[in-house]
Amino acid sequence: MVELLAPAGNFISLRSALKSGADAVYIGLKDANMRVNASNFSLEDIKEASEITKEYNAKLYVCANTIMKDKDVERLEKQLPFIKEYGADGIILSDISLIDLVCENGLEAHISVQENVTNYYALKAFEKMGVKRAILSRELSLEEIKEINKKLKESDSKIETEVFIHGAMCMAISGRCFLSYGLYGRSANCGDCLQPCRKDWKLSFEENETDDVINFSDCDDESFIISSSYDDSYRTNFFSPKDMALIEHIPELIEAGIDSFKIEGRARSPDYVATAVSVYRQAIDLYYKDPENWQYDPKWMEELEKVFNRGYDTGFYFNVPYEISENNQSKFIKKDIAKVVNYYNKIKVAELKIWDDLAVGDEIMIQGPTTGSITHIVESMQIDGRNIEKAEKGSNVAIAIDEKLRESDFVYKLIPREDS
Fold first, then answer.
1. Which residues of the chain have pLDDT under 70?
2. Considering the entire predicted model, what is its pTM?
3. Which residues of 164-187 are buried (b: 16+ CB within 10 A; e: fewer)?
4. How many domains does the chain have?
5. Which CATH number is 401's domain given?
6. E strands, 226-308, where?
7. Mean pLDDT, the chain, whole residue set
8. Are the C-beta atoms of 338 and 355 separated by less than 8 Å?
9. Is the domain of 155 the same as that of 295?
């Protein structure tokens, strides 16, 4: 059965992924991974993360996939014995000098997408070096992936393949981009990308006598904002591709012989993780239950559209990505409104301290390191034992909710976007 691999940038996301059905979770080792803006995990955190993961009989992979200098390799060499002792299963790496170190410490070596693995021969070379798995380049088509896996099977290769099936796409091949470093001195290749590609850009060019390009349009102004293009053939954010979503193509992906389906998003919120994992879990399980009669459920995409996204495309799997994207196109705004003060197990009631109005019928989201991320529609509320329809900010209010909450869990109200 294919592995469903989920991202976790913190303990709330970790719990959310596991409760939603992830078979494995990948986290970032502090100062050594491609998501500096995620919370990331220290050595001691990895110990706790491993213990939580094992509660769900899942695996834990640790990202150490930045460009590394001598001092970085030497630091990681000292950390690897502890990562193994604390119960992690593997290391995701992009610097091939780490393969021996990882294997010597009894950990699986997984080649990062940063390595841009695009062919069977690279996989065979990595297998000889002791690599357990390689994440294939996002630039491969489904047919190319099928062909690679077919050759691996025919050669009795044991190396596993992993692909991204959901999440952000980068403007550069395998994320090898210098735009952030060139503009701000913050290196994407060291996990510190400020994503200038997601901004609105102005396109212009200057003519000179050697130019072969001639402007045949009726517009004399050749410096324009892409979103205001005169012929409607361009849009804004032309460096910013849509997010990838392969939820409609689960059967083709499984039948291509892929070992692990990966969801991108260690810098995204716990509700994003919970939603994405839950949706793909349903689709995968439905396939294995009855492959011949598997049908795509439109409700899956409706759920995915509720959380952060830049609109969805299928990446390079079937063609070149054909649309660019603006910023978040989620259908809801997540507003911080309360925290959990107490939860009464016997009567299944949570007490909330609210700093914004809350009403019966509102949809809320509760997140916490042990709770994970759950959504709930408020069906009843009380203050001092009295039923109410609406509570004003500054109140302590009781709501009925079956799932156990914890003190200091965060509470958000989901507000539909006006333009959704």
1. 33-39, 174-175, 181, 201-238, 320-329, 419-420
2. 0.80
3. bbbbbbbbeebbebebbbeeeebb
4. 2
5. 2.40.30.10
6. 243-245, 260-263
7. 87
8. yes
9. yes
